[in-house]
Amino acid sequence: MNTPRIFRSSLLALVLVSLASLSGCAYETAPVGAPQALSGRPYFSVFQGADDGYYFNLRAANHEIILASQSYSTRTAALNGVLSVMDNGEDRTRYEVLDSADGQAYFNLKARNGHIIGHSEMYSTRSNASQGIDAVIRNVGTYLDFLANRTGARFDVFRGADGRFYFNLRAGNGEIVLSSQGYSAESSALNGTFSVVDNGLDAAHYDIRQSADGGYYFNLKATNGQTIATSEVYVSRSNAERAVDSIVALLPEVDLL
């Protein structure tokens, strides 16, 4: 991507629900506990299908699926597809309307290299498919406007001066409470925010350490022991412990996608 983008994040509760989705997968993570995603704006959902592949859907504010992806082998790859929708979804020249074998119509959203990013449902006419394209363009624009203007508890994904990508977790007052290492790709940094949610609800995943100056900080670690993110330095261990508790309490209030 040519320019950095500030991200909205969302907590996707791992609740499996039956889904007759465009991707043909049996299950999707429901955005439970993400009130903003459920009230009045479009959002993305990223999920693992019954075939173990990863997918994303773009949903309108009424939760209707208006664009669905192919299968990806990893969540990071699916998140890269989400980023590609953001980059290409407002450009009408990226859409192609096609006729199905049974006389219906559908459309694909394509990247600049011609790769298919996402596809629509079936429409009875090409005119209806064209209106579906208008809906996707409009919803992508609304989503990007939300990202540009959001405040409160959130993940920010950004490009550093070294050209690598990072994320910060911010509390409701804007204070940074966790910061990541550098990633070579934006989608990898975004996947790191998912890893915070995957692991950060369990206080056992936080490793409190003493710094060289006598303060205390902590690392959030994955189940394999890898460090996902690091806190600021606190004057006492008890302050660091309270900060862990506050992050565990904060994460259910933070939306993903």
Would you give an account of this structure?
With 257 residues, this protein is of the alpha+beta class. The chain has two domains: 134 residues, Roll (PH-domain like); 100 residues, PH-domain like. 26% of the residues lie in helices and 27% in strands. The strands form four sheets. The chain has a six-stranded antiparallel sheet with strand order 9-10-11-14-13-12. It has a three-stranded antiparallel sheet with strand order 3-4-5, with helices on one face. Strand 9 and strand 10 form a beta hairpin. Helix 1 crosses helix 3. The longest helix has 24 residues. The radius of gyration is 20 Å and the shape is elongated. The protein starts with 15 loop residues before the first strand and ends in a 7-residue tail after the last helix.
List the helices and strands and how they pair.
Layout: E1 16-18, E2 27-29, E3 43-48, E4 54-59, E5 65-68, H1 75-88, E6 95-99, E7 105-110, E8 116-119, H2 126-149, E9 154-159, E10 165-170, E11 176-180, H3 186-200, E12 206-210, E13 216-221, E14 227-230, H4 237-250
Antiparallel strand pairs: 1-2, 3-4, 4-5, 6-7, 7-8, 9-10, 10-11, 11-14, 12-13, 13-14
